[in-house]
Design goal:
Length: 465
């Protein structure tokens, strides 16, 4: 009968699952290491469980790197062994086996047939102790003692097997066989598993499962809180983005107002320069008119003086003429001539007076008109300058308000970003703590489940015994 594979045997025993076996086979294909070593390293089963499976695979007690174990051989091999073997049955000792109750060996029967009959009886009466995989503890003296006894038993088995092939020894007496069987039955094979410990493990598993469920619930609550805070942070971020857009709009408005203020200042300066030029031109023209008026007045004054002097002279001449006329009545023609000259001179003087008065009135009208234009230009200039100043002050106030709002919004945005970064760091730390706590609980639960998986077959085997 071909030897069964270790992984298949451990799967049938329930020590590992099909998925774990597939993982172990995949790792073995990559590393070419022993299957049992990979199972122990991955934590799928303990070293005692692997030793138990190896012993069952070999069909008897076996010493491995994981300790001693007792394995039950296949049924066909047992039948063949019962038919062919004539020596004593080999004792399968294990550090974790359950010691069977002592049995009374049958009375020896005389003759070879009695010895042959006693041998199978001893074999039948001896119960097959099932292997109980457990993690060996090197520091316990009792386990070391049992392991030493098992070493001696294995060596005792190997020596007779080798001597049988060379020179067969005579069959022992039935009394010796019965004594050896009784001694092997009385030997402490393994320590019995305490049900209280099993119940304690189950309680520990329940506690760990409850703690894991509580941790998961707390984790879910934390996640819900984190989601709410994330949503709030997202809303706050959107608000900050909207505030940033508003800040951009305010900046654009500030730039536009500054540009409009610059244009208004430029226009105001241009208008001011133009008004100043017009004022200077009007002042120059007014000065020219004043000079012309002064010249005209001086000229008219000169002409008036001249006319007055001429009138005086004419009147003197007229008086002289009248006196001469009075003195010389015959000179009527001379008198008429002088009167005609006087009338002509008077009309010329009147015309000169009228022309001078008209020129003076015209010049005075020009002066009044220019003064009115100058005052209107000054009033318009002052009004326009006042409007420009008001616009400038209003634009400056708006600019100051926008700059203050922008600074406040920037400060608020920086504070919100700092708070958001702190919240994210705190949430990351809490998430890492929860993840570490969950992993620790899962490791404890896995260790407890592994112990239950190892102790389960032991409890069942103990119940069967």
């Amino acid at each position: 009968m071909p030897q069964r594979q270790l992984g298949e045997l451990m799967t049938e025993l329930g020590l590992i699952s099909e998925e774990q076996l597939a993982t172990v086979l995949e790792v073995q294909q990559q590393s070419n290491r022993p299957l049992g070593q990979i199972i122990v390293e991955l934590g799928f089963a303990s070293g005692a469980a692997v030793a138990h499976a190896l012993a069952m695979q070999s069909g008897g007690a076996l010493r491995t790197e994981y300790g001693f174990a007792l394995g039950a051989p296949p049924v066909a091999d047992e039948a063949t062994a019962e038919e062919t073997r004539t020596d004593l049955p080999r004792l399968r000792l294990a550090a974790t086996a359950v010691a069977p109750p002592p049995r009374t060996s049958p009375e020896p029967v005389e003759g070879g047939q009695g010895a042959a009959a006693a041998e199978p009886a001893a074999v039948d009466e001896q119960p097959e102790p099932a292997a109980i995989p457990a993690t060996p503890e090197p520091d316990e003296p009792e386990s070391a003692k049992v392991a030493t006894d098992a070493d001696e038993a294995v060596e005792a088995e190997e020596i007779p097997g080798a001597e049988e092939t060379a020179a067969p020894e005579p069959e022992p007496e039935p009394e010796e066989v019965s004594a050896e069987v009784a001694q092997s039955a009385e030997a402490p094979l393994a320590a019995e598993i305490d049900p209280a410990e099993l119940e304690q493990l189950r309680g520990e598993i329940g506690r760990l499962e409850a703690a894991l469920a509580e941790t998961q619930a707390a984790h879910e609550q934390k996640l819900a809180g984190l989601r709410d805070e994330h949503e709030q942070a997202t809303a706050e971020l959107e608000r900050l983005q909207a505030s940033a857009a508003e800040q951009d709009r305010l900046l654009a408005e500030i730039v536009r107002l500054e540009a409009a203020l610059g244009e208004a200042q430029t226009t105001h300066e241009q208008n001011l320069n133009r008004l100043q030029e017009e004022r200077e031109e009007a002042a120059l023209e007014l000065d020219a008119l004043h000079a012309s008026l002064a010249e005209a007045e001086e000229r008219h004054a000169g002409e008036r003086d001249e006319l007055a002097a001429q009138r005086d002279r004419i009147q003197e001449e007229l008086s002289d003429a009248l006196e001469r006329l009075a003195a010389a009545e015959p000179a009527a023609e001379a008198q008429d001539r002088l009167r005609a000259e006087v009338e002509q001179l008077e009309s010329t003087l009147a015309e000169a007076h009228a022309a001078a008065e008209a020129e003076r009135e015209r010049l005075q009208g020009d002066v009044d008109r220019l003064e009115s234009v100058l005052s209107e230009a000054r009033a318009a200039h002052e009004e326009e300058l006042g409007l420009v100043r008001k616009k400038h002050e209003r634009a400056r106030e708006e600019l100051d308000g926008l700059q203050a709002a922008l600074a406040e919004a920037q400060t608020l945005a920086a504070e919100q970003e700092r708070r958001l970064a702190e919240e994210q760091e705190r949430h990351a730390e809490e998430r890492e703590g929860l993840e570490a706590q969950r992993e620790r609980l899962q490791e404890e639960l896995g260790a407890a489940l592994e112990r239950i998986a190892v102790l389960g077959p032991v409890a069942e085997e103990r119940d069967e015994l």
